[in-house]
Amino acid sequence: MPLNKEIQPGDNDELTRERLQATFDTQQMAAALWGSDLARKRRELAKKVDKLTVLHDSKDMSFMTREEKLSENARKVVQMFAHVADIVEDPSDDAEMFHLSSNAIGHEGHPFGVHFVMFIPALKAQADDEQREKWLMPALGLQLIGTYAQTELGHGTNLRALETMATFDKATDEFVIHTPTVTALKWWPGSLGKSSNHAVVSANLIIDGKSYGHHNFMVQIRDENTHKPLKGITVGDIGPKMAYNASDNGFLGFDHHRIPRRNMLMRHAKVDKNGVYTKPPHAKIGYSAMVHVRSVMIGHQGMFLGSASTIAIRYSLVRRQGEIKEGSGEVKILDYQTQQHRLFPQLARAYVFMFAGKEVRELYQKVLSDMEKGETTLLADLHALTSGLKSVVTHLCVAGMEQCRMACGGHGYSRASGIPEIWGVAVGGCTYEGENMVMLLQLARYLMKAVKETKKGKSLGRLVDYLLLPQDRHSLIGRVPQGEYGPHLAAFEHIARRQIFKVADELTKLQDKGMSKEIAWQKKAVELQRAARLHTRFYLAACFHRKVQSVVDGRIREALADLYHLHLNYELLDMVNYALEDAYLKADQVDFIREDMYRLLETIRPNAISLVDAFEFSDRELRSVLGRRDGHVYENLYKWAKESELNRADVLPYFDKYLKPMMLAARQRSNI
Ligand SMILES: CC(C)(COP(=O)(O)OP(=O)(O)OC[C@H]1O[C@@H](n2cnc3c(N)ncnc32)[C@H](O)[C@@H]1OP(=O)(O)O)[C@@H](O)C(=O)NCCC(=O)NCCSC(=O)CCCCCCCCCCCCCCC(=O)O
Ligand SMILES: Cc1cc2nc3c(=O)[nH]c(=O)nc-3n(C[C@H](O)[C@H](O)[C@H](O)COP(=O)(O)OP(=O)(O)OC[C@H]3O[C@@H](n4cnc5c(N)ncnc54)[C@H](O)[C@@H]3O)c2cc1C
């Protein structure tokens, strides 16, 4: 069977020649990335969206105002739901729906942005059966639009300091929702400003003057017909952001707004009509919607980095600049070693983030079904894993996307490249769903507990089993036959374990000297977040290893293994100081890693375009002139620029108003 190499009539010849060099079938690689069923569904879905012009952008969003963007994406999302049954096989499949949304709507946000990603997951996990009937069904049926209103103007991280109050009024069997101060205004919830009519609101539960901490409440905020805010509710948009500007992130205040008692989400924690409170089976079960988003973010961020890598690598095969050998003609910029070193490690990261995203979703589904039965044992493990992954993956994605942007030179800075918008959305991920540093410290808490267990000869969980293993003094990198990468993975494990034990010992020493646990933690916070990062980077490398091992097809496994080995080398060099500190690695071994990395850049080079083609991002989804599949970049850049609103007339009014009078006056002065 011939290998599928994604060649189409009308393609730029340069790209066709590149594609013909591939050593593997791109559709099979797509199956390894997405799973064969989803890869097929994605392909079919993209073709259907291509045919449905109502789902197409009416013009490039870069040339729109915020209000036009909101309106455009509201139009498309409505059309998307109207045609959903003809396009997707299973509308309850989040991955298929995300792909549809990426194709039709893009990543700038839309009125249902938080509805599906948080509002519905919060209802699924926290509403009891009767409440599900009342809100989940209408929410799934698009009879209402919901958001998740937790963060306040004054507090986002420290949830215990949230100020919004939900005071139980026994006499009327109601809660009184109130915003006591300006800092208590809800601030940031997506699609709240102008679109949503319902919100899951986090507020302090107060019964007979006693506070029980924050809980989630269903609050209708706008009239379902007029869409006007209900009495006692103030709501609006918080203004433009770095990106994601088709989303109306909003503010929300309550003036003694009353809701029925049964609007508190009561699957786990409960309040009866006499004001008797029942505790949930796990104190943090109400945080499940956050854990859900953290778990989906990993794969999404991988896709964002995959998109940026696709754009930069395709463009680097079209762009020629300078000569390597004088007189032999200008080369494709991807032929420069520096360009390969800039881009291929980002491509490898995109792959592993997508693999990790899949693993973590499987764990989330398991925890969710356990929670349904009141079983919460794995919740802490999941929280620790997602906290670390969310932070490391968003951070590396953003750094990687910036490399992709710079690798496109000047054109990367243009919105025509498509990178600025996806970068802007991805960088939001460093902040939303828990600020990265804060979440790393959550994982560090778990790791410190794991050390305590390890010292008793036990493991806190599967993810930290490696802490029980003895430390090797020296690495075997470069001391085993060429092509064996076991020692590389062992090096990740070594530096994570060493940093975890080192900081645990330092904490103990400070406490032994009489310092409180909290102050000792502060003194070692930077080292603690380092331990969390190293643990997560080991998890990612091990996940890549598991994936390569699981691939059956030899050609796919070989191409994936090249990326995996590059990942091991590149990431180890990025963290090499940790391995040098205890002389685990020697200078010659570092040189060995570098040389092997350069070798791998050359090995990967002929497969580069097919490795990005394998993501199977459609042109519609990429929204990038530079990353076009057919490679016809220059003529389309010119076409795109002509669409700029500034080109609507040769002379714009500001010239006559300001510049012309100034220049005339200057000329007159010089004539005097
Ligand atoms: C965790 C906190 C930092 C601290 O919480 P507490 O103060 O309650 O902690 P304590 O000190 O009391 O207890 C610590 C203890 O609890 C354990 N813990 C904490 N959390 C959990 C948990 N979730 N599960 C289990 N256990 C938990 C912890 O391990 C400790 O245990 P030990 O004591 O045993 O050590 C908390 O304050 C916190 O989480 N803060 C962060 C707040 C946050 O994350 N807010 C999120 C707000 S919502 C939001 O940001 C939404 C963003 C959505 C944006 C969507 C954009 C989408 C972009 C496009 C991509 C997707 C596309 C989607 C579809 C489409 O649009 O098409
Ligand atoms: C695009 C976007 C969409 C959002 N969507 C929603 C939404 O739909 N619903 C919603 O409720 N919220 C939403 N948010 C809010 C978001 O969840 C919060 O902004 C986020 O959790 C961070 O909280 P913060 O803003 O209070 O940051 P802060 O906590 O004020 O962070 C500022 C700095 O303080 C540091 N810091 C804070 N606490 C600690 C600590 N304990 N230890 C060490 N350092 C600390 C942080 O590391 C950071 O450097 C959104 C935010 C963005 C950007």
TrEMBL record:
UniProt pathway annotation: Lipid metabolism; peroxisomal fatty acid beta-oxidation
A Gene Ontology biological process term: lipid homeostasis
Cofactor: FAD
Ranges where the Acyl-CoA oxidase C-terminal domain occurs: 489-663
Primary subcellular site in the record, as a coarse category: other
Pfam families, sorted: ACOX, ACOX_C_alpha1, Acyl-CoA_ox_N
Keyword annotations from UniProtKB, A to Z: ATP-binding, FAD, Fatty acid metabolism, Flavoprotein, Lipid metabolism, Nucleotide-binding, Oxidoreductase, Peroxisome
Source organism, top-level taxon: Eukaryota
Binding annotation for FAD: T151, G190
Keyword rRNA processing carried by entry: no
Name of the protein described by the UniProt record: Acyl-coenzyme A oxidase
Organism of origin: Diploscapter pachys
